[in-house]
Specification:
Strand content: under 5%
Shape: elongated
Mean pLDDT: 84
Largest sheet: none
Distance between the termini: 51 Å
Number of helices: 5
Structural class: mainly alpha
Number of domains: 1
Low-confidence stretches: none
Length: 90
């Protein structure tokens, strides 16, 4: 809490630092409330959280249902990924 008795607001950087803990439900109640308060007023962080959540869900889908995921990919993308994975790294 600040000297005025109000909770100290989180910065955007702090929100990003706590993002994984928030999604995993591991933030202490006070910190979770401050995190959610920040999201209510910061559209950039809310958009980042939404994008991050969708990316995580998509990544999980790749491992949970690889056949379905690959079936939805354009063949040209699959070929490009396979070609890139075969290139030697320096």
């Amino acid at each position: 809490m600040s000297s005025s008795g109000r909770p100290v607001r989180l910065t955007c950087e702090q929100v990003i630092d706590f993002l994984m803990d928030y999604l995993d439900g591991e933030l202490h109640e006070d910190l979770r409330q401050r995190f959610e308060t920040h999201l209510e007023v910061c559209t950039a962080c809310k958009d980042y959280l939404d994008s991050y959540s969708k990316t995580v869900a998509l990544g999980k889908q790749c491992f949970d249902e690889p056949e379905a995921f690959v079936a939805e990919m354009p063949e040209s993308l699959v070929e490009a990924i396979l070609t890139a994975s075969k290139k030697p790294t320096n």
